[in-house]
Design brief:
Number of helices: 3
Largest sheet: 4 strands, antiparallel
Number of strands: 4
CATH superfamily of the largest domain: Hypothetical protein YfhH like domains
Shape: globular
Strand content: 15-25%
């Protein structure tokens, strides 16, 4: 049995393969109506995508729109690896950590 690598240990090529594999499995789960498995696989793909991004592109104190949630914004308090910690605007004010792949870069918002 092969030992699974952490996303942080994978090469860019391996990450892209893993993302494609996860998205294919998520698509099948959605078609079969297995909602829970679909959600888990989608989250795993988002996590893997975060490791393809540069955390330096995100700045504490700035506000970013959330991917797939138009009109929902997230203010970053600090970064820890590929996680942005902060809170959702108009949310409950509780701090949460999101993979940076869930946030749109500023240039994506302006386009």
């Amino acid at each position: 049995m092969e030992i699974e690598k952490r996303y942080s240990e994978m090469t860019e090529y391996e990450l892209r393969q893993e993302i494609a594999r996860l998205k294919e499995r998520a698509k099948k789960a959605e078609q079969m109506g297995i909602v829970n498995e679909f959600a888990v696989l989608e989250r795993k793909a988002l996590m893997a995508e975060a490791y393809l991004m540069n955390p330096a592109d995100f700045e504490p104190g700035k506000i970013y729109e959330m991917q797939g949630a138009p009109g929902t914004f997230f203010k970053i308090s600090y970064l820890n690896g590929v996680f942005a910690w902060g809170y959702r605007l108009n949310g409950d004010g509780k701090e949460e950590g999101l993979p940076i792949s869930m946030l749109k870069l500023q240039k994506e918002i302006e386009e």
